[in-house]
Amino acid sequence: MADYHREYPEKYDVIVIGAGHAGCEASLAPARMGLKVLTLTVNLDHVAFMPCNPSLGGPGKSHIVREIDALGGEMARNMDKTMIQIRMLNTAKGPAVHGLRGQADKEEYHRRMKKVLEKEENIDLKQDIVEHLVIKKGMIKGVITKTGLFYRGSKVVLTTGTFLKGRVIIGDATFNAGPNQQYPANRLSQSLKNAGFELQRFKTGTPPRVDKNTIDFSQMEEQTGT
To answer: Are residues 76 and 56 in contact, defined by beta-carbon separation less than 8 angstroms?
Structure first.
């Protein structure tokens, strides 16, 4: 670690990078067990923000939400408080492929989950971009952020989602960015490579937005929740 970096006075048991679904749960679980947790996110206005489809569960995913709920997680509770619809999908098929899916008010989901993290006394929630992992003799010692701060921690959990060298593709145009035009975590990717990790790129697809003024709702059938 270069000596020009400032060391934050607090030492943490766990440092969580990212505050999406996984980051929130990875922060709350050790904090509720009495460990001191630091959660670092690119933008505090996007804690638990769902930039694409504001939903939880559905085929192939609902069992994960249920398992997290059974273990004391917050996702399902947050959906219960902020949902606008909940529906069992694939009911015309066998029970093996049934999937419970909740649709949330995305702003309310974000606000409530952020408040849960802020009220947890064992969590320090901060806005900053992690750029380097500090590893000595094969052991993690902490992280260095874009602001030049060194946060010391004996465990680091990465929940970076699509931010690692994030790239947006719109037709023929392409540029580096995270979801909703946030900053990508480019230097953290290089730090992982330097530590010996092999990185691969995954693609996510965002459904196109439709202007509601172009839709004749009288010709549509309402799909209610169950």
So the answer is: yes
The answer to whether 38 and 126 have CB atoms below 8 angstroms apart is yes
Burial (0-12, 13-18, 19+ Cβ within 10 Å), 196: exposed
Three-state secondary-structure class, residue 175? strand
Question: Among 5, 31, 15, which residue's Cα sits nearest to residue 119?
Answer: 31
Per residue in 104-158, pLDDT tens? 999 999 999 999 999 999 999 999 999 999 999 999 999 999 999 999 999 999 9
Q: Token pair of 118, please?
A: 């802020």
Distance of CA 48 to the CA centre of its chain: 6
Cα–Cα dist 23/6, whole Å: 25
pTM metric for this prediction: 0.88
Separation CA 161–CA 49 (nearest Å):
12
d(C-alpha 20, C-alpha 24), whole Å? 6
Contacts of 18 (CB under 8 A, 6+ apart): 40, 41, 158, 159, 160, 161, 163
DSSP-derived 3-state class of residue 217: helix
Strand (E) or helix (H) holding 145: strand 139-145
Please tell me the distance from the alpha carbon of residue 175 to that of residue 77, in angstroms, as a whole number.
Answer: 36
Q: How far is 120 from 125, CA to CA, in rounded Å?
A: 10
56 C-beta neighbours (distance < 10 Å), count? 24
